[in-house]
Design a protein that fits this description.
SAM-dependent_MTases_sf, globular, MET27 protein, disordered N terminus
């Protein structure tokens, strides 16, 4: 188990992660992601970032066969890390959206997506008709200074009744306020009958911490959580 400040990570990786989580204004943050695209995958490998693997495994577990025909939307798809994991598990019809053109260019080069679109979630609606997708994933983007928890109804809108939503967030100290907001919003939608929770899996070794303060109980890692929801097949009737 790694210990000590900096957690043995290259300074460039620490600085980059700090920059994108610093809560800068959106255009500036998208520029940071554009600039990070070329080095993104080697940096997250250094972080031992497990969210794409954990999310895809959880979704595959919940998802009824067959998978090849199912249409999936990978929101905040980045360079395609989630698509790679989904593809390995038999999902073939993958669409992606991201706010960073630089990231989308990398995603396009993987050849794993049928369709890729630029979309800044929280600012504009998803470029898809209602009830279009069998599953929607948002891995890594639901966090402080990134995608607001107010996007949940928009994710639900493009999901077919009975379809699945796979979401992740981090449980490190600087994201706890956001996580509480997210969980309140998730619970509100469940209470209203929009979807039901199938899984909320807390994972201790989510990725390596970039600072001692963020590390979970001195492990050198931060923790995170994978949620799986299923959109309710029956439209909810408002009371009264």
């Amino acid at each position: 188990v790694p210990s000590g400040t900096g957690m043995g990570l290259p300074a460039a990786v620490r600085d980059q992660v700090a920059a994108v989580h610093r809560g800068s204004a959106l255009p500036e943050r998208l520029r940071l992601y554009d600039g990070w695209a070329a080095r993104y995958e080697q940096d997250v490998a250094a972080l031992e970032y497990r969210a794409p693997h954990l999310a895809a495994a959880s979704l595959a577990f919940a998802f009824p066969a067959p998978r090849a025909e199912a249409r999936l939307l990978d929101v905040a798809c980045g360079t395609g890390l989630v698509a790679r994991e989904l593809h390995r598990r038999g999902f073939r019809c993958l669409h992606g959206v991201d706010g960073s053109a630089g990231m989308l260019e990398r995603a396009r080069s993987t050849g794993l997506y049928q369709e890729l679109r630029l979309c800044v979630l929280g600012r504009e609606p998803l470029p898809a008709p209602a009830e279009h997708y069998d599953a929607v994933t948002v891995v890594g983007a639901l966090g402080e200074g990134q995608v607001p928890s107010t996007v949940l109804p928009e994710l639900l809108r493009v999901t077919k009744p009975g379809g699945f939503l796979c979401l992740t967030t981090r449980s490190n100290p600087s994201n706890l306020r956001y996580k509480a907001e997210l969980e309140a919003a998730l619970g509100q939608l469940e209470w209203s009958g929009a979807w039901q929770k199938l899984l909320a899996q807390e994972v201790v070794y989510w990725e390596r911490a970039t600072t001692e303060e963020e590390s979970t109980q001195g492990t050198g890692y931060i923790s995170g959580v994978v949620y799986i929801y299923q959109k309710c097949p029956v439209p909810h009737l408002e009371e009264g």
